[in-house]
Structures are given as structure tokens and as C-alpha cells.
Amino acid sequence: MDTREAQLWHTVKPLLRQGRAWDLVHIKTCIKHAEHVLAAGDIPEELRDCYLPAVMLHDIGWAFMPHEAKAIGAYSQPASREAHMRIGAEKAAQLLKTAGYDEQAIATICTMIGEHDNPYLGKPFRSHYTKYLREIDLLWRVTEENFWKVVKLKQIEPEKLLAKRLQSFTDAIVTPTGQLIFEELERQLEARIMRRERCIKEVV
Ligand SMILES: [Fe+2]
User: Fold this and answer.
1) Ligand 1 centroid to 200 CA: how many Å?
2) What are the C-alpha distances in Å from 145 to residues 26, 28, 134, 142?
């Protein structure tokens, strides 16, 4: 993170606490993964300055959504998904302007934010850069933090959930480092599932 990104993060962090219960942990995890991808040189040169701000801000829309829309069970509804992307892009534009980003960078970042969940809605991406954000967003789905929460909430067998998760990754991993992170997270979950008794005790 450079100085401007660190300052932006300082502003964004408290807002994320007003989003869904897991948004702050989600974004911190996304930033950690994105920094590895960036450090490995897997992001196109012209996107490098926009990549971390897009990751950091991509779910900021939830902070401005009514409580009912971001509650468990509601946030995956198409209308909520659509609204969090639209509101997120608007709020991100304001935050980025205040942080000193130029118009072109703001347009690139906000396009990515405004369409990052399009695959859930059956819509394509307009920008070919959005796939880099989606990769990071989806890696969250195989982290310990997200996985055991969903096992508990949906009362689903971990093996079944893992199989579903892995299916959704078929076209989502687009960088070599994303692939390495994904394989390591998958290995960790498989090891935990193997030691099932322990996971049940440690569920969030
Ligand atoms: Fe996300």
C-alpha cells in the first residue's frame, strides 16, 4: 500500500464497520490477497494504481444500505446486489476524489465496483479489468472466516459446501498468484474438514 492508499484505507475502514457484519474482515482479507497478487506482478501495469483502491472499496455500498437489505438472507437478493454496486460506485467516486485520484482512475475503479457482482445477476462485465477484482472477491469464499460461517448459517455439510464453492471457481481465477492462494485455501479447508470434530468446536 502506498501513502495515498493507506490514507484512503484509514477513511474506508470505519465505514466498513457499518456494512454487513463481516465486511471489515472480508475486505482486510481481500487486501491481503490482492497485495500478494500485485507484488507478484500479476496485474497489468496500467491497472496497478487502481487495483488496491478497487479491492478496498468494492463493497462500500453495503455501509449505505438499509439494515433490512444487508441482513442475512437479504443481501444475496438481486435488488440488493444491484443497489450495493450502484451506491458503492457513487460513494467510492466521492471518497476517491477527496483522496486526490484523477478522473480517469476514478472512472476505472468505479466501473469495476459498479459491476463486480454482475455474474450473480447473469450480466457480463463491461471492463476486462473487473475480473481481477472478482478473483479477489471470490477467494474470500474459500477462507476459513467465510466458510465456517456459511456452514453454520446454512446448516450444510462442509464437504457439500466445499464442492459447491470449488464449482464456482472454474472461471474466476485469472492470475497465477490467485491460483496459488486458492489452492492453499482449499488445502486448509480440506485439512479442517478432515479434522471435523475440531472445526465444529471452533465454528464462528
Ligand atoms: Fe466482496
Assistant:
1) 26
2) 8, 11, 18, 8
Cα(198) to ligand 1 centroid in Å equals: 28
The rounded Å distance from CA 175 to ligand 1 centre is: 18
Q: What is the pLDDT of residue 197?
A: 59
**Nearest to 88, CA basis, from 78, 96, 99, 76:** 96
Domain ranges (residues) in the chain: 3-202
Centre of ligand 1 to C-alpha 137, Å, is 5
| Inter-CA distances, 85 with 9, 95, 134, Å | 19, 15, 13
Residues with CB under 5 A from ligand 1 (ion): 59, 137
Q: How far is the CA of 104 from the centre of ligand 1 (A)?
A: 23
List alpha helices for 41-175, DSSP H.
48-57, 67-70, 78-98, 103-115, 130-139, 144-154, 158-167
Confidence of residue 193 (pLDDT cuts 50, 70, 90): confident
Say if domain 3-202 classifies as CATH 1.10.3210.10.
Answer: yes
Predicted model pTM: 0.90
